[in-house]
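RETRY 2/3 - previous attempt timed out on the joint model. Re-submitting the same 790-residue input unchanged.
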Amino acid sequence: MAKVLMKGNEAMALAAIKGGCDAFFGYPITPQNEVPEYLSYHMEKNDRIFVQAESEVAAINMVYGAAGSGARVLTSSSSPGIALKQEGISYLAGSELPAVIINVMRGGPGLGGIQPSQGDYNQITRGGGNGDYQLLAYAPETLQETVNIVKRSFSLADYYRNPVIIAVDGLIGQMMEPVDLDQKIEEKKSPAKDWAATGEAAKRGKRNKIVSLHLDPYQLEKHNLKLKAKYDEMKENEQQYELINMDHDPSIVFVAYGSMARIARSAIEALKKEGIEVGMIRPICVHPFPEKAFETLPKSVTTLLTLEMSLGQMLQDVQIVNQGRYTLDFFGRAGGVVPESEEIVEKVKTIMKGAAK
Amino acid sequence: MKTKTIYKPTSGLTERDLTYCPGCTHGIIHKLAGEVMAERNLIEEAIGVASVGCSVMSYEFFNCDMQQAAHGRAPAVATGIKRVKPEHTVFTYQGDGDLASIGLAEIVHAAHRGENITVIFVNNAIYGMTGGQMAPTTLIDQKTSTSPLGRKKEGAGEPLRMCELLATVPGATYLERVSVHDPKHIRKAKKALEKAFDVQTKKQGFSMIEFISTCPVNWGINPNDSLQWAVDNLIPYYPLGVYKDGTKDDQS
Amino acid sequence: MKNEEKVIIAGFGGQGVMLMGQILSYAATEEDLNTVWIPSYGPETRGGTANCSVTISKAQINAPVVTAPDTLIAMNEPSLEKFQSKIKKGGLLISNKSLIKDATFRDDIKVIEIDASQTAIDLGNLKVANMVVLGAYLGATKVFEETAIHKVFEKIFTGEKAKLIDLNKQALNAGMAVVGK
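RETRY 2/3 succeeded.
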């Protein structure tokens, strides 16, 4: 199909329909409102379910119910709304239910602002829900990548029986860009949902129970270990990243995701014109963090410069992975301020001056 | 010798032993709900939602597919289920701390949307599982572990009446409050449940049956006297009866 | 068109600023060019300041936010004040003369002033002032052929709105004519 010009939020909504989303439950919040607005019309047109819930909390619990019945389910929100959903996300993970959650990130903490931000990195990679659980967390860069990830996420969620969260900053949600919604993607093979509480106990000859309660600590630990094995499998198989400009012996390598990576690309181009080669590791899946990307860097690399539209959250993951191998540096803007590529260029030059001393 | 079966456990419940305290009326209410669903052949296709509180384990007792919900969220979970499984019977089983306190928004809005589900609401005017704390339904002057001097209107408010509250919600179809303190009332309660599930089967919308229940352990009253205490104290404040019957203007 | 064109379009809510930018991005998409349209968004829907930026490029677009535009289309005075200094040296400013009077313009940029409101009123509808300005922009930059924009009109004005196509075409023409003179 030819590319169509679409707003990010609408493109994500349409991608969800194309990804086989059966039901959407959500609540209005800026800057993601075009997602439910689009779906309120198009889900009905496609004989699927759309419910505007009374709250973020109710929405994620409706997701939990529908996912328990075996449906492919989506909710979307923005930062403070995702905070409210954490309870339900923990239940989804605990009960091993697949679901897709979109977070169109805005500035925080608290009510914060409504401009683009990456301040939810810890929220999406660590989560705020209780207990020993992990999510698959994606942070795409362009609209095309976003759409492909949204489409694929339903099969990933089904495969792992785990929630998948897709975090884009408000910029990706609000901007328009040409996008091909029918690009071929490799779906994860989804096993049959023989565990779902579909109301067919008699036909099945066995009751299905969707439960996260395990009162016996030994039983709960067994459950925790089962989940952990799944998270280990994710870590082995789902690390996704892009290496940029690595074949020019860069000494400095950026680590950046989402819109920040796009801005960093402009900085790489600008520096190249001045004869300075800088590389970039671009995590696409931010949890599990793409550790593998750090194992194959060229010998020329001395410094990893983490770039964020937040103040040092992904930096912590870089520190863990780095294990003292490279010098670490950081540049970030926050609060909804989108940095200019020139600021990154300046930062690189400052680092180089320091190194030359 | 010929044997004749005159009574047997309902197939609406599993063979698991109930975990409720002796003398508590959860057992009777489970049995009634199980019977009604079994007699109407609903149990084969039903999906139940267990809540948080004493009935947290109800997913082990109802003989159908079950999902366990976070505290207060059962009506939202049931909404999610019912929307993707509209041809199946969907019910929640919730206590008064769950439904009337932390889950107030979810129950009001499920009724408000007219979700075609059945809510079994067990009101014993106290938090049971967590150890007898004050609930929104706790009576004035009733002593609990968080109102040791008795509930005071000032600061704690007066007890919430859920049937009366939901009766003001346009989307609710059938609301009735019943009691299970003696055989006569148990029979009446079963009729109410039959009505509620029939409302759902006929796709007439939201139904809730509120059961006046007991909590001998946390009330500190023996089981027999607990039943009498409910009759003397709870029922006067929470009068029994039908609070809304939207099926009457719906006889097409 | 040249390899890359970056535009900021600014005015107040209700002037059709967002639509002007979207039309450019739609045309770019039709011609299989890369494009990004970014709105400024705020709590107010009408009457507040509104601006959008558009990048059109033959190459992949990196940083999506436009900080130094090739062209600024200023529909009112606050927009001119806010963005004039950001225009690239040798860039273009299209200034809506109907609302921007006695302004001081930079002397290192090309300035086109257009009385968009009056031109639109002459056509019978003040609302198409934005398309008059868009016409002037196309005339001055030749980023797209007129027919490319006509195709976009036919795509976005459907159903009830289809009757607006002719009026918008006329407005576009009128704007182009101003620059052509």
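Chain C is about 40% helix and 20% strand. Closing ticket.
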